[in-house]
Amino acid sequence: SLVAGVVAVQGDVSEHAAAIERASAARGESVEVREVRESGIVPDCDLLAMPGGESTTISRLVHSEGIAGEIRDHVAAGKPLFATCAGLIVASSDAGDDRVETLDLIDVTVERNAFGRQKDSFEAPLEVAGLADEEPFPAVFIRAPVIDDVGDAAVLASWDGNPVAVRDGPVVGTSFHPELTTDERIHELAFFETDGASVPGLE
Ligand code: GLN
Q1: What is the structure's pLDDT at 78?
Q2: Which residues form the active site (predicted)?
Q3: ipTM of the assembly?
């Protein structure tokens, strides 16, 4: 059985846990989900999710709890990490905000709270590269970051001229919240379709 960790210092943790369970069931995999609030759990995890929430808080706590280095090691070992919204901000290489100490796991720079300034929240039908079927993905954006600069990351989806889903080796990041829908296809993509990814250390 797989062990999946959800970084649970803050944010929409239970929604990710439920989506991981659905995605695993869709793949015929059994999974045990653990909430990560302290160090010592991530090393046992096969898969990891970093939720949406408040990126300044998440970044502060993953560092102070000693989880940040474990997340880096997880990714360096080529294991999947899926980071959504605030999670993407924390996983990015630069959030343009001194209060967010990024983990530099996805080679993108982001701008917090910059997507859809006119409207804090919106839903958009997205074409996402590599999804199981052609159906657009119902993407929920909530005070979402804009991805400004894409270095080595691959763009999986764009909306309104900006990348909104990216992959960098074993890491997938979205500016929206797949965990807030009942569509688990992007969790499946992030956790079970890593074959084509160029994984650092394994190339
Ligand atoms: N605005 C939040 C931040 O910058 C992210 C919002 C979210 O995760 N929905 O941390």
Answers
A1: 95
A2: 85, 177, 179
A3: 0.95
CA nearest ligand 1 atom 2, residue: 54
- Tell me the CA–centroid distance for residue 127 and ligand 1, in Å: 22
Rounded Cα–Cα distance for residues 61 and 2 (Å): 26
Provide the residue ranges of all domains of the chain, joining segments of one domain with +: 2-192
Ligand-binding site membership of 27 (annotated): no
Question: Rounded to whole angstroms, how far apart are CA atoms 134 and 127?
Answer: 8
> What phi-psi label fits residue 168: left (phi over 0), alpha (psi between -120 and 50 degrees) or beta?
beta
69 appears as a binding residue in the annotation: no
To test the pocket of ligand 1, the residue of 7, 97, 113, 119 to mutate (highest count of ligand atoms within 8 Å of its CB) is: 113
What's at 71, amino acid-wise?
Answer: I
Query: What tokens were used for 42?
Result: 């991530």
Torsion-angle region of 47 (φ positive above 0: left; ψ -120 to 50: alpha; else: beta) = beta
Structure tokens at 20: 């991981």
The number of the ligand 1 atom at minimal distance from the alpha carbon of 100 is 10
Using one digit for the tens of pLDDT, what is the confidence trace for 19-49? Answer: 999 999 999 999 999 999 999 999 999 999 9
177: annotated active-site residue: yes
Whole-prediction pTM: 0.94
**Cα separation, 82 vs 17, whole angstroms:** 12
